[in-house]
Design the sequence.
């Protein structure tokens, strides 16, 4: 995959196939981007499981916080990384190891987060990768909104 620009269809396919997201670097502070993205994704029908070792055992937006990806008991298709580019490499390696048992198919690195070598490792393992993008921004740009169960689709 060429990571300088992603085809809209590639992003849409990811957003459509994912149902549960493990969000690395989740914050319990409402002013933080990770909190705002988590809230937005939940409001658009995704289950978002927060992962942050400093907040493990607490709750964010109705979900328990886990220390690591391995600690998350439920399967999840996407890992959304709110960590710096260097730290993203270790997260990606953990996700690659867990992919067969957790069902991970997508690694998403947030805005300003790029780790080409980690992306190459993930792609070699069969995972889709997005770098330097935000799913909230992409959903708004593409006008991609999933209906929340029991709620009319947003436009």
Sequence:
């Amino acid at each position: 995959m060429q990571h300088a620009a992603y085809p809209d269809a590639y992003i849409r396919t990811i957003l459509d196939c994912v149902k549960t997201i493990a969000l690395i670097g989740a914050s319990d502070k409402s002013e933080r981007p990770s909190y705002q993205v988590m809230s937005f994704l939940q409001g658009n029908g995704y289950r978002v499981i927060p992962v942050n070792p400093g907040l493990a055992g607490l709750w964010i937006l109705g979900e328990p916080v886990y220390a690591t990806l391995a600690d998350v008991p439920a399967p999840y298709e996407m890992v959304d990384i709110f960590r710096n580019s260097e730290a993203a490499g270790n997260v990606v390696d953990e996700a690659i190891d867990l992919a067969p048992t957790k069902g991970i198919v997508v690694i998403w690195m947030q805005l300003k987060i790029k780790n080409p070598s980690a992306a190459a490792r993930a792609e070699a393992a069969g995972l889709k990768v997005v770098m330097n993008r935000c799913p909230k921004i992409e959903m708004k740009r593409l006008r991609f909104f999933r209906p929340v169960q029991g709620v009319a689709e947003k436009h």
In short: The first helix runs from residue 8 to 17. DSSP finds five helices and seven strands in the chain. The two ends are 30 Å apart (CA to CA). Strands lie at 20-24, 47-51, 59-60, 63-64, 78-81, 106-109, 128-130.
